[in-house]
Each structure stands twice: as C-alpha cells, then as structure tokens.
Amino acid sequence: MTLLDAVVVGSGPNGLAAAVTLARAGLGVRVLEAQPTVGGGARTLPVAGLDDDLVFDLCSAVHPMAWASPFLRAFDLPARGVDLVAPDIAYAQPLDGDRAGLAYRDLDRTAERLGPDGDAWRGLLGPLAASWRQVTALALGDKRTPRGMLEGVPGRAAPATMLRPGLRFGTALLEQGGPRWDRRFLTDEAKALLTGVAAHNITPLPSLAGAGTALLLAALAHADGGWAIPVGGSQAITDALVHDLEAHGGSVETGRRVEAWSDLPPARAVLFDTTPATALAVAGDRIGPARRAALRRFRYGNAAAKVDFVLSGPVPWRVPDVGRASTVHVGGTRAEMVIAEDTVAHGLHADQPVLLVSDPSVADPGRLRGGLRPLWTYAHVPAGSPHDVTEEVTRQIERFAPGFRDVVVASRCVPAAQMEQHNQNYPGGDISAGAATMWQMVARPTAAPDPYLLAEGVYLCSASTPPGPGVHGMGGWHAARRALRREFDVRTEPSLWP
Please, what are the domains in the chain? Predict the structure, then answer.
C-alpha cells in the first residue's frame, strides 16, 4: 500500500484547513470522513421529514470569522466565488414590552438606538472594532507562542501595534467577565444585547470566556464584514476548501469511520479533527502516558438541542426591526439569561431557555422556496439531554413574536443526545467540543507547550485545540504548519492565495 504523507481524520473546517495547508506544500493528503457528506459543523442539507426544496445549516449558520479569520482571509473566500452577505442589523435581542436591543453594523446608529447607553456602547466596542485585526489575532492565536499570537497582523512585524488593542481587550474582558459587568450599562437593551452574544458559550454568566466571545463577536459586528452569511449556506465554505484541496492533489473519502489505528492508511503524519477522546481511542499507546492522562481530564460542556422550522412567512416579531437581523438571541433580559444558563449548568432544563435563532433568508433571499423559508434554532440544554425542545422553543419565540405558531408549517428537533450521530465532535450535544471555561479556552486540550502534538507524527487539530470553537480553520492551520516543520522539514509556509 502506498505511503501517504498525511491523513486527516474528520472533514470539519479545521480538518479541511489542515488538509489544504499540507496539500499546498506539495504533500499527498487524504481526508477521511465518517459521515456521508463533507463539512462537519459547516454543512447545508435538506432535512428529512421537512420540505425537500429547503436546505438547512446543520450546525453553524452565521460566519463573522469567514472574513475575519487570518486563515480564511489568506484563503480569500470571495475570490473563490463564495458570496458573503451581511444584513444591516447584525443581531437583535427582543425584550418584553415592545422593546429590543439592535446591533447595527453601523456603530453610531447602534449607539443612537441605545439612547442613554449609546456612549458606553461606543466606548466599549468602538476601539475594539477599529482594531479588529489585532483583537482577532489575540483571540484566534495558538495561546502559546508570540508568533502564534500575532497571526493575521499586517506584516507580523509590529508587536507594539498589539499593545494598546491588547490592553483594551484585556480591560474590557475583566470588566464584562466579572462582578463589574453591570456597571457600564443602564438599560435592559444594552445589557441584554451583549449578554446574548456571551451566551453563545453555553456557560454560567458572567464569565471570562463568555466575555471574550461577546467582545470579539460584538466588535466584528461593527467591523468591515459584519456577521456574514455565505450565500447558499455554510456548505459554500466547505465546498471551496474541498475544491482547493482536490486541485492540489488531495482527496476526501466519505463514509470512512476510523475507530482504530488499523483503519488508517499508512501515512507519515496523522491529524485528528476530532475530540481528544476519539484521538485517544484511535492512537492508543502511541501517545505517552502523561499526555494520555492529561487528555482524559479534558472536560466537555453543556449542550444545544436543534430545532429546524419551515415557515410560511417571516417570524412576526413584535418589534419589526428584529426581523431585519439574520441572528436573534432570544432569552429576555440579562437577569433572565443568567438564570437560564445557571439552570442548565446545574443539569436542569430552563423553563425559558436561551435560544439562538437564525433566518438566513433575511440576508440571502435565495434560501426562500415557493414562499417557504427555513428557520434555524438552538436551545441551551444540559449535556446529553434526550428531550425534544420543540414546544419550549416555539413558546419562547412566541413570547416575543405573537402568532409565530401560525406561520410554522413543519419542524424537526435533534435533541442534544442525538447531536453526536451527525457529528462525533459534539459529545452529548456539546457544540463547542469542550467546556468553554477560560482555562479550557487557553489550555485546550491540555496545558502542554504544544497543544497540537500528541505523539511523533500524531496531531490534534479540532475545536478542542486553540483557539477553540468557530468556523475559522485556525486549529487546523496551526497544527498543519507545525506538522510541516516537524515531520517534513518544510520551513517555507505555502501560500493560500487563490
């Protein structure tokens, strides 16, 4: 059997980023995917039992990192025919009493809408949005090396350019991640608007990890590309990566489940776009005992349950402008979301769960079919929950959009306990591939100096490594460049330009 240069296990965005990087260096690369389709958390497919003409994003739907990630900036999705569109309102947070927080792409318009909190919002996020390259580099670095922390900074030659943005980000992180987080804003609208973004981490609030997510994503909402949606769905990103991989001699095999080392073709390097548990099960004794013990201590987090809806019309939000956002965080006030997330953290279902809702047709009208539209929702639930949350999700949306039930044509729930069936990287429904604590955001999957190297020729490159979850490809890019240097003595990094 021919010896390959590299095998990548898993075809999520990180796995494909690793494969593309290696293939562009002239190596023979094969990607093995257990599912019948490619893309992991970035797939767009018809949903069985719903309208066959509509397609739904299987996991990720909205992609600020599609234009902000250093890897995807270098890869240049628009130059490869991927259209990234962003609505004027990046995200919204409906509240009781005909109120809502609205995050416009225009920072000044957002501030104006927030009234007495406008200056406070501008003061917190304006400098971060203006320094989005530096802030993104800090957030998406390898959390280990100075070089890895400067990724994506123009020229990578001026650490001094990182100092002021880094201090601003760090100061804001401490403020919004701790007991002082209520001091900046006066209104429910501003407080809830930022908290809805922090809740993406599915963790008790306030938290440093949640604050980091909120500050990065909220800043990007006011930066160049906003909260972008790929026209046609997340699959467009995956297809562009696969096309480039194949153009450089690589290949992808679907339906290839890897459960033991013997399932792998011979290769000089193996990169796992998987959880640490899967890598341990396959690589076994090839990983040293100390690293195996550390990987077994890696903790997984709470979960999301998915509900896809087919609608006969737009969601009838009580505040019409909420319907102009492709992303809506549904959970009420900051205080209500804190209670809901704490309830989930204690292993219980919240009566009024935090929801992430996306109507892609707001920005991409091509997703409409015959007057029908897809609606994508997640509800935060305890890890491993088998509960069908369709009624809870419907009731929570109806709270802020009376008449929502009347536009629902069909729905389908994927409970948290079943999420792993379509993506093994979501154990128990943990879509972050690991608990999103501040420690585990920095020391993913362990505190080892090299978080990607598991053993000689064996690497982990998934969302369980720095910088963590999201469709950005950075974990794969970081791991692949280490493999190029260590395993193949390739010192010149391959260009990703089209």
Answer: 4-62+231-300+433-488 (3.50.50.60)
